[in-house]
Design goal:
Elements lengths: L1 H34 L5 H11 L10 E9 L10 E8 L21 H7 L12 E11 L20 E8 L1
Antiparallel strand pairs: 1-2, 1-3, 3-4
Helix pairs in contact: 1-2
């Protein structure tokens, strides 16, 4: 029994590490591509979902958020605003960047927000645009081992939510 538990642990831990690496790489590559405007939002989301194999980010186990934020442009409108927002996948996972298109984003660090604010002394902002890509995946173990560790899984035994965020 001890050997079986060790094997189950090794199998699930290996799959969990692989899923975490894939999610991290998809968010980083997505941020890099989106910041360079290689593809428009929906095409980029589709491309990122396809690149996540063997994970399926297109259905209920995955979600990708792509948010483009532009800087404030004038003294009368100094705050940054959400320029575009795209999403793909049906997993219920909220973006850490809240707000609607055209509105001021919440969820940015105060330092990043201040760099995007219009600076009247320089007649511009420090940064003109920021792209945030968030990738979420619901990891479902293949072995019954996580059922014994209720604190590591989501309520109802659904699995473990893995997320990664890249800001470019």
């Amino acid at each position: 029994p001890v050997l079986v538990v060790l094997v189950f642990g090794i199998v699930d831990l290996g799959r969990l590490i692989q899923a975490r690496l894939v999610v991290t790489n998809v968010s980083r590559e997505g941020g890099s591509l989106a910041s360079r405007d290689i593809r428009d939002g929906d095409a980029l989301i589709s491309m990122l979902q396809s690149s996540a194999a063997p994970l399926d980010l297109k259905k209920a186990d995955g979600r990708i958020w792509l948010t483009k934020i532009k800087s404030g442009t004038t003294v009368s409108d100094p705050d940054p605003y959400i320029y575009r927002r795209y999403t793909g996948g049906t997993l219920v996972a909220a973006s850490s960047i809240t707000g609607s298109v055209g509105g001021t984003p919440a969820g940015l660090s105060s330092m990043l927000f201040n760099h995007l604010r219009y600076n009247s002394q320089n007649s511009t902002s420090d940064i003109s645009e920021v792209t945030v890509v968030e990738v979420f995946y619901l990891y479902r173990p293949v072995t019954p081992l996580p059922e014994f560790m209720q604190n590591l899984i989501l309520p109802g035994g659904q699995g473990l939510l893995i997320g990664s965020k890249a800001v470019f």
